[in-house]
Design goal:
Length: about 325
């Protein structure tokens, strides 16, 4: 079986992107023409995209870019972020696994990555679409010595790290929409979810979940995300190795995190503002307690959004979805 698979891959490699007829594949790998179809299906299940055209045959359009912890660690330029990687083919949510690892005292910088999440989560129990092989679905564990109420600052720090990683690895410059949306051409390309384990005055751990859409094409998004979501492949026109983006993210995150621990939130705030859109504009914020409209003044030291409504009241927004 694996011998046939190998011959099939070799045949496609030799064909270098040209079509191979069913008959010639059958001869090359030594099986019947009906068996060819079964082997092609096998490759598809592994993540190969194979085009089939009548009278021409088959050709490989895209190969799976398998991730592995070795591949991620190779070429990682950090001291501790991502130095311990747990990689899974399929999980419900990497947040849950990172949370379990945290109670087992996993070291700071531990990274959990999955090729697929079957119940990826957004904020407020929303769903995060995490199809197999198409994106970066990962959770990072950190243990900063900061008061629990400052943990939201890490969401903003992570947004800066994600924007910079995408800039470096893909050559796009995304913008940030408060608090956690990373946008390219007004569509969401990445999201961040920060959760923590803490007592009243002490943080045990913060689990930062990051989802980045990488290889999806337009048809890979469910209907409800068609107008609002995008991927690096859609925006750049080509697929990208996920490991490169993960490595870049880890490097950017580590730099910012060390700066944050040493100098506090202020330098991070300045960077965040330089990538943010909508500050100074009219915004509508949908919060738990209703809608607040007004001009966005900026963020506070704690990463809270300030909106001034038309009667001059300044509202502090801790959690909301915004439109502008
Ligand atoms: C977020 O929530 O943007 C946080 C997403 C965090 C995902 C990561 S993946 C690794 C880790 N493990 C998890 O289980 N989660 C984290 P929020 O701001 O609430 O946005 C959620 C909304 O974004 C959904 O209600 C959809 O409208 C939209 N959405 C869902 N999947 C998307 C995708 N793949 N790309 C763009 N938008 C999406």
């Amino acid at each position: 079986q694996s011998e046939i698979r190998k011959r099939l891959i070799d045949a496609f490699t030799d064909a270098s992107g040209e079509f191979l007829s069913g008959q010639s594949i059958a001869e090359l790998i030594g099986c019947s023409r009906t068996a060819v179809w079964k082997h092609i299906e096998g490759l598809r299940e592994e993540g190969f995209t194979i085009e089939a055209v009548r009278r021409k045959g088959y050709r490989i359009v895209d190969t799976p870019q398998k991730l592995s912890s070795d591949e991620i660690r190779l070429g990682l330029k950090t001291d501790f972020i991502g130095q311990k990687v747990f990689y899974y083919e399929s999980v419900d949510s990497t947040q849950k696994i990172a949370n379990d690892l945290s109670t087992e005292n996993a070291p700071e910088g531990t990274l959990v990555i999955a090729d697929e999440q079957t119940s990826g989560r957004g904020r407020m129990e929303r769903k995060w679409h995490s199809p197999k092989g198409e994106g970066i679905w990962m959770s990072l564990l950190v243990r900063p010595e900061i008061p629990p109420q400052q943990a939201p600052q890490l969401t903003l720090l992570t947004a800066v790290a994600a924007v910079r990683a995408i800039e470096e690895a893909a050559g796009l410059t995304p913008v940030i929409k408060w608090p956690n949306d990373i946008m390219v051409n007004s569509k969401k390309i990445a999201g961040i979810l920060t959760e923590m384990q803490a007592e009243a005055d002490r943080i045990h751990s913060v689990i930062i979940g990051i989802g980045i859409n990488v290889n999806q094409d337009r048809t890979d998004f469910p209907k409800e995300l068609l107008g609002t979501a995008t991927s690096l492949a859609i925006e750049t026109g080509n697929g990208l190795p996920r490991s490169r983006i993960i490595q870049e993210f880890c490097a950017q995150f580590e730099k910012l995190y060390l700066l944050y621990l040493e100098k506090g939130f202020y330098p991070i705030k300045l960077l965040w503002e330089s990538y943010a859109r909508g500050i100074g504009s009219f915004m509508r914020a949908r919060t738990y307690n209703g809608v607040i409209e007004g001009v966005a003044l900026g963020i506070t030291e704690d990463g809270v959004l300030k909106i001034e409504s038309s009667d001059g009241t300044i509202h502090k927004i801790y959690s909301a979805d915004i439109e502008f």
